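PROTEIN DESIGN WORKSHEET
SECTION A - STRUCTURE
LENGTH: 156
TOKENS:
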């Protein structure tokens, strides 16, 4: 490929290159599916994939570390991807679906069963269905079918 000397690489060409490499929406979707294909194959083969998100309540900017784990045949969890994600207007479930549109996020019942003692709960379903506002002494019910974080910072 011949590149004329009149083509100068610099600040002005940087934006043009960024747009070129970003691709069309169809190309972006294809690239995302290509990146996620190993996770989808792992699930199709009977494996387990977990997504760990943090819900930062009382913050004006939605952000979360995103960690994706797979479980090998011995049940050991392996971190396969991690990044920081900024978001607005999404619940935890909606964010998971936006990041992985092919997934059906559900609560990891086995994880909750193993870890509910950490929070003094006999039944993890009770812990998930109740919200606590310690400052105001308010206890209220959450939607039991929704996906909630395992723990909220400062609240047990």
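SECTION B - SEQUENCE
RESIDUE ASSIGNMENT:
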């Amino acid at each position: 490929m011949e590149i004329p000397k009149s083509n100068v690489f610099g600040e002005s060409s940087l934006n043009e290159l960024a747009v070129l490499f970003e691709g069309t929406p169809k190309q972006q979707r294809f690239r995302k599916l290509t990146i996620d294909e190993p996770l989808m194959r792992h699930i199709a083969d009977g494996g387990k994939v977990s997504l760990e998100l943090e819900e930062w309540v009382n913050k004006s900017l939605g952000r979360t570390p995103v960690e994706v784990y797979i479980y090998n045949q011995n049940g050991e969890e392996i971190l396969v991807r991690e990044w920081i994600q900024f978001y607005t207007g999404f619940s935890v479930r909606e964010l998971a679906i936006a990041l992985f549109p092919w997934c059906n996020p559900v609560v990891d019942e086995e994880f909750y069963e193993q870890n509910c003692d950490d929070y003094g709960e006999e039944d993890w379903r009770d812990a998930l269905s109740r919200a606590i506002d310690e400052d105001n002494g308010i206890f209220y019910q959450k939607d039991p079918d929704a996906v909630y974080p395992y723990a909220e910072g400062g609240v047990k």
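SECTION C - NOTES
Strands lie at 48-52, 62-71, 77-87, 130-133, 138-141.
Residues 107-145 form one domain.
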